Amino acid sequence: MKILVVDDEMPARKQIVALLGEYGKSNFIIEEANSGEAALNKLKNEDYDVVFLDIHLQDISGLDVAEKMVNNEVDAKIVFVTAYDEYALKAFEYAAVDYLLKPIDERRFEKTLLHLMQACEKQSEAQQQNPLSAVEKLLIEHFKEEQRKKKLTLERDERLYVIDLEDILYIETEEGNTKVITTKGNFTSTLTLSEWEEKLPDPPFFRTHRSFLVNLEEVKEVLFWFNNALQLKIEEDSNRLIPVSRNNTKSFKERMNIIG
């Protein structure tokens, strides 16, 4: 078990190291950090099983260190150590395993350490039995989600059609109706344009106007209109032009890499 002890006071660090030596196992790997930044640097470059983390550090709060650990998905169990019990509830927001008050009670420390060792052993056994199971599940779910995002089913004339997202040219609202214009025909949808905007990936779909959601990969031509607005030609064999509102023109130009 690899352990990081974080405290800006050397005596406090040495006490925890000594208790780990007394109640722990001889194969423990113990490292120290005398500040929050030093701890974050170590956590960035090395993997730890457990972090004993003082809340009151001179540079940044131990709670801030814990927040960054959580945000960066650092897979280490956190045990907060502090002289103040007012932070107990806050500490457990960061999935802390335990909370030790200074001066540290040895029986309390022994109980915490036993819990940590049991948790790490169970985790290690699970990984040994099927080391790739968690990764495989994530990859499978990711693959399914990506595949799901690439297709959708639309209804027309009491029949269901499976449509590739890349076949959608644009979606528009007109008099309260939502129309999905695709290379395989046009469909009417009960979803609002805002719901379609949330459902479809960005890029390539972009809300050019309050009434239009466009597949930018299908834009064939960009035409200048009055008041610095733009119009888009999507279907080469159609005279239909889709507006880009002035509010969305700047963002549209950036996405289409239009210079000038």
UniProtKB/TrEMBL annotation:
Write down the Gene3D superfamilies for this protein, in alphabetical order.
3.40.50.2300, LytTr DNA-binding domain
Q: Where is the Response regulatory domain?
A: 2-117
User: What is the protein name for this chain?
Assistant: Stage 0 sporulation protein A homolog
Question: Its domain of life?
Answer: Bacteria
Domain annotation HTH LytTR-type: ranges: 152-258
| Lineage start | Bacteria, Bacillati, Bacillota, Clostridia, Peptostreptococcales
Species the sequence originates in: Tindallia magadiensis
Q: Which GO terms describe its molecular function?
A: DNA binding; phosphorelay response regulator activity
Modified residue 4-aspartylphosphate is at which positions?
Answer: 54
> InterPro entries given for it?
CheY-like_superfamily, LytR-like, LytTR_DNA-bd_dom, Sig_transdc_resp-reg_receiver
Q: What does this protein do?
A: May play the central regulatory role in sporulation. It may be an element of the effector pathway responsible for the activation of sporulation genes in response to nutritional stress. Spo0A may act in concert with spo0H (a sigma factor) to control the expression of some genes that are critical to the sporulation process.
For this protein, the record's SMART domains field holds:
LytTR, REC
Arranged from A to Z, the UniProt key words for this protein are: Phosphoprotein
